[in-house]
Amino acid sequence: MKTFILSVPNTNLFPFTIRPINIHSVQQAHLIRQAVADQVPVAIGFYMEGEAQSREVAGYGVAHIADVRIDGSLLMYVQGAGKVNISESTVISNGIITYNDVHIIAENYILDDHFRHSYVALSKYFANWIDKYILDPGQKDFFLKSLTGAKEVVAACATYLIRDFEIQYELMERVDINDQIEYLHRLMLSKQLIF
After folding, report:
1. How far is CA 132 from the centre of its chain?
2. Which DSSP state fits 16?
3. DSSP line for 32-74
4. From the CB of residue 67, how many other CB atoms can be counted at a distance below 10 Å?
5. Residue 189: which H helix or E strand, with range?
6. Residues with Cβ < 8 Å from 156, sequence gap 6 or more?
7. Which of 96, 104, 97 is closest to 42 using CA atoms?
8. Helices (H), strands (E): how many in the chain?
């Protein structure tokens, strides 16, 4: 699959989430506008500050432009559709976009009954977080309605409840929903999740 690849520090794009990203470079903004016009997905390559290039697993999705500013920069939103392997692509960590072939990573979203209790516990934990920290009733309702299944709960917990970007990326590398739930449940029990 062809994608535009954008390296962004400290940013993981999980499937089933929406991530706002500011594009400050006029050149990058032009390429994002091209991606939107041509309906080419954008992969968000994660790297930590000081690293030479993005890690190999990246979230990808369709970009939507929310705001184009006078200076040519823009704000975009990317709706996470899945994960891709960008290890064979040329990706530079200063945010330069490359247009390249990437391989979609197959994921297992079938929840094993053995992990159902952990999934329910995570769902309740996230719902309690929403109730405590999301004050706007409309936003609270939106968040709660978005938790339609295990994959949505995993994505929400990963995006909003894990403070450490390295730990987020460790979860990003896991491709089995049961493994993801077990990992998040352990973080929850050891009080490593926010709240």
Report:
1. 23
2. T
3. HHHHHHHT--EEEEEE-TT-SS--SEEEEEEEEEEEE-TTS-E
4. 11
5. helix 177-189
6. 17, 126, 143, 146, 147
7. 97
8. 6, 7
Which residues are CB-contacts of 88 (< 8 A; sequence separation ≥ 6)? 101, 102, 103
Which tokens hold the place of 186?
A: 């352990």
Angle 159-42-172 from CA coordinates, rounded to 5°: 35
Pairing verdict, β 103-105 and 42-47: unpaired
CA angle 128, 175, 77 (to 5 degrees): 65
Q: Which residue has the tokens 């719902």?
A: 127
pLDDT tens digits, 25-41: 888 888 899 899 999 99
Query: Cβ distance 93 to 51 under 8 Å?
Result: yes
Handedness of CA 156, 157, 161, 163 (dihedral sign): negative
Angle subtended at Cα 83 by Cα 79 and Cα 85, rounded to the nearest 5 degrees: 135
Beta strands 2-9 and 57-68, pairing class:
unpaired
CA distance 18 to 77: 6
Which residue from 169, 166, 164, 154 is spatially nearest to 121, judged by alpha carbons? 154
User: What are 88-136's pLDDT values in tens digits?
Assistant: 766 554 555 666 788 999 999 999 999 999 999 999 999 999 999 999 9
What pTM value is reported for the model? Answer: 0.90
Given phi > 0 = left and psi -120 to 50 = alpha, else beta, which region is 39? left
In angstroms, rounded to a whole number, what is the distance separating the alpha carbons of residues 107 and 70?
41
Residue with tokens 């329910």: 120
